[in-house]
Amino acid sequence: MAKSYNKDTLSWLNTTFLIVTPILFIASTALWLSVDGFDINQLWLGVVFYCLTGLSITAGYHRLFAHRSYKANSLVKLFFLTFGAAAFQNSILKWGSDHRLHHNKVDTEADPYNINEGFFYAHMGWILLKDNDTVKEKYAKDFYRDPLVLWQHKYYLIISAVFGIIMPTVLGGVLFGSYLGGFALGAMGKVVVLHHSTFFINSLCHCLGSKPYTDTNTAKDSWFMALLTFGEGYHNFHHYFQNDYRNGIMWYHFDPTKWLINIFEKFGMAWDLKVVSSKKILNAKMNMKEIRLARKLSKQDARLEELLELKKKALASLSEWQDFRVLYLNNKAEFTRERLSSLKQKIRESKKVFQTHFHEWNQYLDSVQV
Ligand SMILES: [Zn+2]
Ligand SMILES: [Zn+2]
Predict the structure, then answer these.
(1) What pLDDT digit, counting tens, does each position of 144-169 carry?
(2) Where does this protein chiefly localize (predicted)?
(3) How far is the CA of 128 from the centre of ligand 2 (A)?
(4) I need a labelling partner for 186 at 20 to 30 A (CA). Which of 46, 216, 247, 285 fits?
């Protein structure tokens, strides 16, 4: 049923906030420019706050708290909770429970930001409605056992005001001589732009892009969306492998959230990073291509059997290559030089075997395409 936005269904606090913040952003920017004049430093201050806050949502709220895709020490958690609050997207208790429900019931009526209700609803309409104003208790049980999460929930408004508004405003004044400039860009500009870039994950990331891993839901992979969302644009992968700490799995995928988690890991502040095996990922990708092909061919087509055999070979050789790599990486310090160099040779050879098998599978797939 189409959602209706009226005086009985609207959450007035959320609606007012989402309308007033862009107005304040434009008005305060105009006032700042006319009173104090443009200063590039204020823009950089806004960008710094935007990144700190945005990454706290993606690396903290999303991948650490909502998905538990890695573990982090209290300092990192505290950083994400304070700067995450600065995004004015609610406490993690509320945000995380909504998000888990989204994954669990994606594209259904129970999905809090169900894209089938239309682009506007998935983007921000759902926030305007009273219906979605509550914590989804079933999906928040572990949050209630985390004292830091409870602390943030209790003092959410104070924390968000301090880190989201007061801090950038004061820094704008103290460092660059204009409190107004700090308020316009570091506080308001950051909140408004970040709101919509986060909302895009629920709207555009379910509309734009490709579906390499599964087409059982609307989530899509898009490198362009990754640029706008600190790497969250690989949303098809994320919906299929939601516990992986990465969204962009290749080194050239733009995923600054993943890079930040890697940095924390280097300094011993994050650990237990969950990674889905290359074999499982490739298997999902190959399966998806086979499913698409099977839809075009008849079920009994013998060529599908042949394709399956080639896939098995490719996956087995991938496993072998990965096993040699793991053996090498885990024993770099212990093995003798000779053993390491023979292992390196095996890695090279098994990689070639895999590439040949994968190429055969791809060629066969192309030849069968109708
Ligand atoms: Zn989604
Ligand atoms: Zn997610």
Answers:
(1) 999 999 999 999 999 999 999 999 99
(2) membrane
(3) 21
(4) 247
